[in-house]
Amino acid sequence: MNVVATALLAGAVIVGAGCGGDDAGTGNSFVADIRPAIAAVEAVLGPGQEFFEITATSRLTNLFVAVDEATAAVPYVYLDDELQPPAPPLTGASGFTFSADAVDFDEEAILADVEAELPRSTIDALSIEGGRGGAVRYVVSARSAAGGRLDVTVAPDGAVLEVDPV
């Protein structure tokens, strides 16, 4: 696991631990927060930002902005339609990045196939991860009622591409 992945995981755990509560019954409209979150970051930092990862949950959206020639990441949280002040930079970052124009998914369909195939599971998050050449990968994090977890890679239209137990 590279430094960014480790830092992103640590950041997600810290943010998630502070939230508490149960996701059941909250719906998945949180994917609609991704584009406004990107716009909020670019309103503060200027257009053309590069991101390592963006993860949306029912509570908030985390955005990891690449800085210093993609050797560090600045974590931002978009919460209640507002961009929060940035956390301190995570140094030693590495990995692929992407810009806002690479984020091109169907908000209505992105989770639909996973919801249909796993009707008794809870979708916890949608992550957008940087790939080679500025491409992106969409990963849905799902949790079963029994506690098992899956990362489901999906196409922009929600078609399931790969399933990984975590």
Question: What can you see in these coordinates?
Answer:
The chain has 166 residues and is of the alpha+beta class. The chain has one domain. It contains three helices and ten strands, in the order ααββββββαββββ. Strands 1, 2, 3, 4, 5, 6, 7, 8, 9 and 10 form a ten-stranded antiparallel sheet that branches. It starts with a helix and ends with a strand.
Defining key terms:
single chain, 36% strand, disordered N terminus
Question: What's the quick description here?
Answer:
With 166 residues, the chain is α+β, with helices and mostly antiparallel strands.
The end-to-end span amounts to 14 Å
Q: Helical content, roughly?
A: 10-25%
| Strand residue percentage | 35-45%
C-alpha geometry: globular
The run of helices and strands is HHEEEEEEHEEEE
Give the number of domains: 1
Residue ranges: pLDDT <50 for 5 or more in a row?
A: 1-27
What is the SS-derived class? alpha+beta
Structure summary, number of beta strands: 10
Arithmetic mean pLDDT: 87
Number of helices: 3
Secondary-structure map:
Elements: H1 3-19, H2 34-45, E1 50-57, E2 61-67, E3 72-79, E4 82-83, E5 90-91, E6 98-99, H3 112-117, E7 121-130, E8 136-144, E9 149-154, E10 160-165
Antiparallel strand pairs: 1-2, 1-6, 1-7, 2-3, 3-4, 3-5, 7-8, 8-9, 9-10
